UniProtKB/TrEMBL annotation:
InterPro entries: Formyl_rcpt-rel (IPR000826), GPCR_Rhodpsn (IPR000276), GPCR_Rhodpsn_7TM (IPR017452), Leukotriene_B4_rcpt (IPR003981)
Keyword Cell membrane: yes
Alphabetized Gene3D superfamilies for the sequence: Rhodopsin 7-helix transmembrane proteins
Domain (G-protein coupled receptors family 1 profile) ranges: 46-295
Compositionally skewed regions (Polar residues) per UniProt: 353-368
Name the UniProt record assigns to this protein: G-protein coupled receptors family 1 profile domain-containing protein
Predominant location: membrane
Record keywords, A-Z: Cell membrane, G-protein coupled receptor, Glycoprotein, Membrane, Phosphoprotein, Receptor, Transducer, Transmembrane, Transmembrane helix
Length: 368
């Protein structure tokens, strides 16, 4: 059964029609519009403030700072799109035309992919910094990181093309809606399996493996202060997972619906994803406004002495990552090894390393 020509039917147990648009569910659209409104009011100015803090207040750009900047750009761009979706849910019809239907949902998917990929890169970088601190500067030069970020943005733009291909404005009763229109069930599977695999399964497999290794290494060290920065990144990871999990579950339901043979189970699956799509999509947007809140609580100790620059100092403090702290652990075993580690770190232009290797008091200040 193709999504473009769903035949009307009635679920005998609930007497609910399932040929309606995802924006024709009163409860779902009302909740979705409310969630998106709150998300926009909190998330848009929050991410703009993060971008301004990094660009205007950060003294130098560490790897962590660059990743957080790109994450804020992706999240802020996603927040900028929310007014269009709020209007769509409130009016329950698409009023922006065919081109905007394709462009807005394409940009939405691009920034969703970019957000999770940035978080994945953060986790991989922390893993390298923890396990191989002496080698981290060789593979995380600013030029290398910028190239990686450029390639990542290109890849997510390419991966989001199906959203532009399948999204169309179509008549639905007396109104018009912007939905994915699939001629074949295989198109449904292609679009949503791509989102599940590239936007959830692969990134979170990498993230989970990275943090298992990171936390195991942290437990082996006596330097408990290093856990602070790891907790911040871990909180970002968990937050993203919690808010995007319902959306990906509904994707799985829709894929199962497309693959399932005709029958009552297929009808029930169709009902589930129709009724849940608007709400789960709105919940997914919450992750993009949650990061500024996490940064605020993590950096509140900087506010009194740094003022509006507290966010930039937080990112620089977070940038005092495991590479430099690992060198302190090694110094307990051998002074000569400690000197070698410091020599390597001093060559790195990353402020994470320079500040920590020059003084024993600076890491404590920035990591406070």
């Amino acid at each position: 059964m193709a999504q473009s020509n769903i035949s009307p039917f009635i679920n005998e147990s609930s007497n609910l029609t399932t040929n309606e648009s995802v924006v024709n569910t009163n409860t779902g659209t009302t909740m979705g519009a409310l969630i998106l409104s709150l998300v926009f009011l909190l998330g848009f100015p929050g991410n703009i403030f993060i971008i301004w803090s990094v660009l205007a207040r950060a003294k130098k750009y560490s790897v962590t700072t660059l990743l957080i900047l790109n994450l804020a750009i992706a999240d802020g761009s996603l927040m900028a799109l929310t007014p269009f979706f709020i209007i769509y849910l409130v009016l329950k019809k698409w009023v922006f035309g065919e081109a905007m239907c394709k462009i807005l949902f394409y940009l939405c998917l691009v920034n969703m992919y970019a957000s999770i990929q940035m978080i994945m890169l953060m986790s991989v970088y922390r893993l390298v910094a923890v396990l191989w601190p002496r080698r981290v500067t060789l593979i995380t030069s600013r030029k290398t990181v910028l190239w990686v970020l450029a390639v990542l943005w290109v890849l997510v733009m390419v991966a989001s093309v199906p959203a532009m291909i399948f999204r169309k404005v179509k008549p639905e009763g007396n109104t018009r809606v912007c939905e994915s229109v699939h001629v074949k069930d295989s198109h449904v599977v292609l679009q949503y399996m791509l989102e599940i695999v590239l936007g959830f399964l692969i990134p979170y497999l990498v993230i989970v493996v990275s943090y298992i290794c990171i936390l195991r290494r942290i437990r082996q060290t006596k330097f408990r202060r290093r856990i602070r920065s790891e907790k911040l990144i871990l909180a970002i990871v968990v937050t993203f997972c919690l808010f995007w999990l319902p959306y990906n579950i509904i994707n799985m339901v829709q894929v199962t619906w497309a693959l399932y043979p005709k029958g009552q189970v297929k009808d029930i699956l169709n009902l589930i994803w129709h009724k849940s799509r608007a709400v789960t999509s709105s919940i997914a947007f919450i992750s993009s406004c949650a990061n500024p809140v996490l940064y605020f609580f993590a950096g509140k100790s900087y506010i009194r002495r740094e003022g509006l620059a507290f966010m930039a100092r937080l990112f620089e403090g977070t940038g005092l990552d495991s590479a430099t702290r690992k060198s302190r652990q090694n110094s307990q075993n051998s002074r000569e090894k400690d000197k070698d580690a410091d020599a390597v770190m001093l060559k790195d232009k990353d402020p994470d390393s320079v500040t920590n290797s020059n003084s024993n008091t600076k890491p404590v200040k920035n990591g406070n």
